[in-house]
């Protein structure tokens, strides 16, 4: 099948989590603009319907999935539904995440700790668990997970978020190692500081106009989702605009 330069992802099927706003919305619109059918996952029905209208304006289509990612059985049901309809998944964007509370580790409540781990780590593991067979059925399965510089910086008061992103990094790198001999490629993407609601919650005094936007980042999702993308188990770092190879201990 010939690939249009204007629609490099034409006919491909993509799941995007946290698709109703911020990075997820921008990624969904960029992938749709490149021709992909978007399976948009988010908690808010109204915001998904607004996204659906915007996707239709690109000439692509969407399947809306109002779903809380802590409903792990629902993730399994989604995997089954994708198999029944498409028999494969070409692109998985694991974007949904929460910040938690910024406070000393000793002050973090068990409830907040669990919430951050449930969304930022366990939900992404469940996505891999449910969708790995579907990605392997694609001629070029691509899994992209949004990480953060917090995974290595380990700033004071960012404990749950930093720990969760470090665990996500290990999860995705392990998955990349396990799919090394397949047609699946798994990448981490570090967006750096962007003009998002999460960034504003973390840095309320920051001038948002000084930051790049999710729309600036979005074209890179197309590149990482492309069948031509060959790297796996690495980090695309948007602030540096380059692929980084995580360093193993000596």
UniProtKB/TrEMBL annotation:
The UniProt entry's coiled-coil ranges are none
> Could you name the Gene Ontology cellular component terms for this entry?
membrane
Which InterPro entries has this protein been placed in?
NAD(P)-bd_dom_sf, Sc_DH/Rdtase_CS, SDR_fam
Show the SUPFAM superfamilies listed in the entry. NAD(P)-binding Rossmann-fold domains
Q: Which GO terms describe its molecular function?
A: oxidoreductase activity
Q: Name one Pfam family in it.
A: adh_short
What keywords would UniProt list here? Oxidoreductase
Entry annotated with the keyword Cell cycle: no
Family of this protein = Belongs to the short-chain dehydrogenases/reductases (SDR) family.
Q: What is this protein called?
A: SDR family NAD(P)-dependent oxidoreductase
